[in-house]
Amino acid sequence: DLGKWISSLKLGPVPLYGHPETLDWIKKKAPKNLLPHPVAPYAKEKIGDISVAFLPVSHGVKPLATCGFLFEHKLFYASDMEAMEERGLALIKGVKTAVIDGTFWDKQILRGHMSAAQSLELGERMNPQKLFLTQSGHTFPPFDIAARLFCKIVESENCAFSAQLAYDGLKIEI
Question: What is the bridge-based pairing of β-strands 130-134 and 162-165?
Fold first, then answer.
């Protein structure tokens, strides 16, 4: 349970940034040690020393609004998404590193998530230096096989950026 895990870390209350409507829904179910912090789409907040922009992405689940996070134009992170507005794409164009949803191997089988091919198509529009697909799920082959196959796909597509599958414990240098 999330509340017990946060308590075990002895961090105290943890801020949770998100769209106001989504946070209203989460408050009904969330542990008390999460501190909801509403942010409007395209808002920027300073969190510690880092500037974070909250960019709306489509997750396909109504009425919950989902955000991608742009950290000082160095890292864009959006794990639950199937699409993004042109305005948001313009803001992340050329970002150093993008980590985006890549839940399905062959084709999209559930709204709110993308296949590896759809993620690469979105990557072409983002034009990051590096692209990582996260949330690879049960439709993927075993990781070592999927990683090799994905590299071949990226090479055959002549992507202008490097791309690979993310994995638990991955560290990304920004």
Answer: parallel
